[in-house]
Design goal:
heterodimer, A: alpha+beta, four-stranded mixed sheet, four-stranded antiparallel sheet, B: alpha+beta, 3 domains, five-stranded mixed sheet, two-stranded antiparallel ribbon, extended
Chain lengths: ~325, ~350
């Protein structure tokens, strides 16, 4: 009986947690396990959602009051309030928003709002690079940031857009039943133990669990929970602007670059679905003949590291391995 | 947070990458600035090394005993800011150039000695840039505190600081223009940006601490009962929320370069405290488990110290195993699900075919 009391409380509490929008299975499971052992972690996402709702309520447009969107619904505005709508921001502006707007991490499920295709495309592997170029890392040129809750939708099309949240009926019912039954059981059956043993009574363990269930229940009333983050498309389609950059190791055979002394270079590759205009051939050292390279900075960059670029027609073999890349830019490391 | 991700290479590089010549400005590719001249299509190709005028190192002594010293070392490029803390013999040198403090303020990437909210493989995170007051609409209380702080620190601020803020303000204006152009269907008020993310993390802990104190007080009148059991229970119940207070210190290290040695020291101490509280939480769970078992069996258990430690370590091990297991297997969750599904389908087909035979 007592085990049932404790276990049902813990499991019911775990059933009410709300993962962040777009969380993958691994992070959700980790969160559930953390909430079982340390119940305070259950309230993180709920408090964040309630905080966003409060910001929307006080600073949202139109002015606050009882109106559509006060409680959770399937409108885009409600999704934005919940933190499930993102936009792309160029890399140069990212430091202005970092730490103020929420970043959509690479392991969260993000889809384009209009066609629900995945935001994070296929990733290039080391085999996709030309020989001699070792990929070190990648980052997007346009970074998805979650929109703040006080965003204003200006177009009727967006106002009519629907993003249904996940159903919270079951978790709400579980939370209500848990809270009512826990208080009732604690009062009727375990009151004597609490009175006699005081803080050493083991039955007090359930209190943080049903408190956090209550917080999750309140959050479910006002803010929906979403399975994925919807990214609004830019006016300039991002597919035309290659959203992925790769940092590639120094292509020189014997690089003398040492930390904090002589610098050596890395190459930045721009990923693209189209066949590349410029390819790198380590064997061809003739830097004066660059028929296919019409990008000044690229010519300079390649010449500095002692390699040349050749036209598409001359490097069929290399193009098999670098079909995904548009070009390479020289950067330096220290 | 978003992370720079690794492609599975064994090691990042002999040195860590730092973007220096900013051909790429986040929107498009700039013509290369070389020795002050913009190269054009017809410009001659030079084989000279990359100019290093944008790269500089600043090293300053923080503490010295005469025999050895601790120093702070900063490496700046146009785009990267790398902060390190180092130990050395001798007195070390004090950095006398005040402008070095301001270098790297407009970098995009940040790397610090201790990795907090950054990628542990490439070690670079996005650096937060300060937004000028003129571009913020904030609560009057925040405004008052900020003005007071500015008045106090007026003597130690530099003109360059204002220039940096001015440029940051221009960037904010550019961002607003860019947003209006690229997202004409939405309107975002950039002046109403929150100061910091993650405050819900702290509120969650404070809420639980406050409400649970009220509940416990009302139910038990703070009667301890068996003191050791009560102590462990309180460690478990308050330990998790207590760790949330670290947020105040950790938050300053996430996206900003931290030049304060005491802050780093406190960061280290709080890390040790975290381990201590985690051990306490495991002990608390052990006590709760034993206490519950005793209550279920209607008896009293008095395990020896060794058994208590064993139970606590077992709980910590379960934590670790589950954590590693979930992290490891979640990568293959999709594939495993398909494999299990196919295996079941194959098994059912075999069963059906054998029953037909």
């Amino acid at each position: 009986m007592w085990i049932a009391f404790l276990v049902t409380n813990i499991l019911a509490h775990a059933a009410t947690i709300r993962p962040s929008a777009g969380s993958n299975t691994g992070s959700t499971v980790r969160r559930v396990i953390a909430t079982i052992f340390i119940p305070v972690t259950a309230g993180d996402s709920a408090f964040r959602a309630l905080g966003r709702w409060l910001v929307w309520f006080y600073r949202g447009v139109p002015p606050p009051g009882f109106r559509q969107g006060l409680l959770r619904d399937d409108s885009l505005q409600a999704a934005a309030t919940s933190g499930a709508v993102a936009i792309c921001i160029p890399f140069q502006f990212a430091p202005l928003l970092a730490g103020r707007w929420e970043l959509v991490e690479g392991d969260r499920m993000a889809v384009w709002l209009d066609d629900t295709t995945y935001f994070w495309g296929a990733t290039a592997t080391a085999q996709d690079f030309p020989k001699g170029l070792k990929p070190l890392g990648r980052f997007p040129r346009y970074i998805p940031f979650v929109l703040p809750p006080n965003v204003q939708l200006l177009s009727p099309k967006l106002e009519k857009t629907k993003i249904p949240p996940e159903s919270s009926a079951l978790s709400s019912i579980i939370a209500i039943v848990q809270i009512v039954l826990s208080i009732r059981d604690l009062y009727n059956n375990y009151r004597s133990s609490v009175v006699v043993k005081g803080l050493s009574s083991p039955y007090l363990v359930v209190i943080p669990y049903f408190l956090m269930s209550f917080v999750n229940f309140v959050a479910c009333i006002f803010v929906g929970s979403y399975r994925r983050v919807s990214v609004l498309r830019m006016k300039d389609d991002i597919k035309e602007n290659f959203n992925e950059l790769y940092i590639v190791d120094c292509p020189r055979e014997k690089c003398s670059g040492k930390k904090n002394s002589e610098r050596h270079q890395v190459v930045l590759a721009i990923r693209n679905e189209r066949p590349p205009d410029v390819l790198i051939s380590r064997q061809d050292k003739n830097v004066d003949k660059l028929p296919g390279c019409n990008v000044p900075w690229l010519r300079l960059a390649l010449s500095k590291i002692g390699i040349s670029a050749t036209g598409r027609s001359k490097v069929d073999v290399a193009s098999q391995q670098s079909r995904m890349f548009e070009g390479f830019a020289l950067l330096s490391i220290y | 947070m978003w992370r720079v991700s690794n492609l599975g290479c064994s090691k990042v590089s002999p040195c860590s990458p730092s973007i220096n010549n900013i051909e790429f400005n986040g929107v498009g590719w700039n013509p290369v600035m070389f020795e002050g001249a913009v190269l054009t299509e017809s410009a001659p190709i030079s084989a000279e090394p990359v100019p290093s005028h944008e790269y500089s190192i600043s090293s300053t002594r923080i503490f010295t005993t005469g025999l050895f010293h601790f120093r702070r070392k900063q490496s700046f490029t146009a785009v990267c800011h790398h902060l390190q803390w180092a130990f050395g013999f001798g007195c070390g040198q004090k950095d006398t150039n005040p402008t070095n403090k301001l270098k790297g303020r407009r970098a995009i990437f940040l790397k610090q000695f201790f990795i907090t909210n950054q990628d542990w493989r490439l070690y670079w995170g996005i650096m937060q840039r300060q937004i000028p007051v003129s571009h913020r609409e904030e609560h009057s209380l925040f405004r008052f505190l900020r003005n007071a702080k500015r008045k106090v620190l007026r003597a130690t601020t530099f003109k360059e600081d204002d220039e940096i803020l001015l440029r940051n303000g221009q960037d904010m204006d550019e961002l607003q223009v860019w947003l209006d152009e690229q997202y004409p269907d939405i309107k975002v008020n950039l002046r109403h940006m929150p100061h910091q993310l993650g405050s819900s993390y702290l509120f969650s802990g404070i809420f639980l601490q406050l409400v649970i104190t009220v509940f416990l007080g009302a139910l038990t009148r703070f009667k301890l009962g068996e003191a050791s059991y009560a102590g462990w229970f309180l460690v478990w119940i308050y330990g998790g929320p207590f760790l949330r207070w670290k947020w105040f210190n950790d938050e300053t290290l996430h996206q900003k370069p931290c030049l304060s040695a005491p802050t780093w020291l406190f960061f280290g101490i709080s890390g040790v405290l975290t381990v201590a509280v985690a051990a306490g939480v495991c002990g608390g769970i052990a006590v709760i488990c034993v206490n519950l078992m005793a209550a279920i069996c209607d008896t009293t258990f008095t395990p020896s110290a060794g058994v208590w430690i064993l139970i606590g370590v077992s709980i910590a091990a379960v934590f670790a195993i589950i954590g590693f297991g979930v992290t490891f297997f979640s990568k293959f969750a999709g594939e495993c699900t398909i494999l299990v599904f196919l295996t079941i389908v194959e098994f059912v087909e075999k069963c059906l075919s054998s029953s037909d035979d």
